[in-house]
């Protein structure tokens, strides 16, 4: 999937200086992931106003209350997110009721969930755009994969960690007639404090060189939840334990900082170790992308993680051999990959520089602003640089 260039989206933003497009953002404000996503919108409010978009934000108190609020505020575009624990059928009914009203705004469903998969595709007939942080690539995988529960993390847990996935699922088929409504927006690398150093780089050459003095060969400190019976959280924890255990063959030859022994360190020490590391192994979380990936890139360690070639996302720090090093889902090639790059410090430097440059470029090119413009043009709320009447 290719993203439109800035010039293709707007011919002239100079004609759109007054806010004429009312946008309303509604979601579960008590959810930290939703809060981080809205942080990225708050950070760009002034930029959005340049092409006529004014955003207001509200908590999703309940479905009936949300419908009443939308009808009262009368936005032209509604950005809405549901808590992942909501019943999908209830969310569909709510959007269908809103859609049936005579003065319904354009509806953008903002999927903030970690996974490339989602159980919320049934909302597609009732929204204009389904915004997702990361999607399967190609999108046909939504309907052709044979992963347990339709989810790649469950595939790793079941096939390589001996976890009984049972009937756990976080997926739904993608109706082909609505596939063009699914669009990538931006992942958590562009959210909250993790984005600050890339947005406002202040690293001078002396500090950058100091960060090159690496005393730790491999770093892997990750949260691991206790394994409990048939708890779905086992899917998450088993993969992380798999990654920690995979480092054991390297322990005699290299200096490794990990919590394979369940040790913990203060946050300040965590970052000191990460900045001092040549390589950092980053397991998936509930989804393929984690905030740790971007912290690793920021600290100039070589990012190694299970292959994400089935995923499309942005900021894209997942270009094999250029910005990160993929390993097999069974981690059979992890030892080989670590040894290869630890013997080639120039390659580590090249790839870590590429990764940070890719992260930084996302902000330098004003990607969030452009993505919002693309959205409004597609919704026919913005055309030729001016809000549509």
UniProtKB/TrEMBL annotation:
Pfam family, one: Glyco_trans_1_2
Top-level division of the source organism's lineage: Bacteria
Entries under InterPro entries matching the protein: YkvP/CgeB_Glyco_trans-like
Spore protein YkvP/CgeB glycosyl transferase-like domain mapped to chain residues: 260-376
Name of protein: Spore protein YkvP/CgeB glycosyl transferase-like domain-containing protein
Lineage, broadest ranks: Bacteria, Pseudomonadati, Planctomycetota, Planctomycetia, Pirellulales
């Amino acid at each position: 999937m290719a993203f439109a260039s800035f010039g293709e989206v707007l011919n002239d933003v100079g004609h759109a200086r007054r806010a004429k497009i009312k946008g309303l953002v509604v979601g579960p404000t008590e959810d930290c992931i939703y809060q981080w996503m809205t942080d990225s919108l708050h950070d760009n409010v002034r930029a959005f106003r340049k092409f006529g978009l004014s955003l207001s934000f509200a908590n999703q108190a309940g479905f009936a209350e949300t419908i009443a609020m939308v009808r009262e505020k009368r936005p032209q575009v509604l950005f809405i997110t549901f808590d992942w624990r909501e019943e999908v059928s209830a969310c569909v009914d709510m959007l269908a009721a809103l859609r049936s009203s005579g003065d319904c705004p354009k509806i953008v469903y903002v999927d903030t969930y970690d996974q490339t998969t989602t159980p919320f595709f049934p909302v597609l007939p009732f929204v204009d755009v389904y915004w997702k942080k990361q999607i399967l690539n190609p999108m046909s995988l939504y309907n052709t994969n044979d992963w347990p529960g339709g989810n790649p993390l469950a595939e790793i847990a079941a096939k390589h960690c001996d976890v009984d996935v049972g009937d756990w699922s976080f997926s739904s088929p993608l109706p082909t007639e609505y596939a063009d409504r699914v669009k990538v927006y931006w992942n958590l690398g562009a959210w909250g404090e993790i984005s600050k150093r890339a947005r406002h780089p202040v690293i001078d050459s002396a500090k950058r060189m100091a960060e090159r003095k690496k005393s730790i060969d491999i770093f892997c400190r990750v949260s691991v939840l206790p394994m409990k019976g048939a708890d779905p959280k086992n899917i998450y924890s088993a993969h992380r334990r798999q990654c920690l255990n995979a480092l054991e063959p390297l322990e005699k030859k290299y200096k490794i900082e990990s919590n394979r022994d369940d040790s913990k360190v203060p946050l300040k020490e965590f970052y000191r170790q990460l900045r001092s590391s040549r390589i950092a192994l980053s397991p998936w979380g509930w989804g393929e992308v984690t905030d740790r990936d971007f912290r690793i890139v920021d600290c100039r360690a070589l990012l190694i993680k299970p292959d994400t070639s089935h995923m499309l996302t942005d900021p894209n720090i997942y270009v094999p051999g250029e910005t990160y090093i993929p390993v097999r889902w069974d981690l059979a090639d992890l030892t080989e990959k670590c040894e290869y790059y630890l013997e080639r410090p120039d390659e580590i430097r090249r790839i870590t520089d590429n990764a940070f440059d890719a992260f930084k470029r996302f902000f330098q090119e004003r990607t969030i602003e452009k993505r919002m413009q693309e959205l409004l043009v597609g919704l026919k709320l913005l055309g030729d640089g001016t809000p549509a009447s």
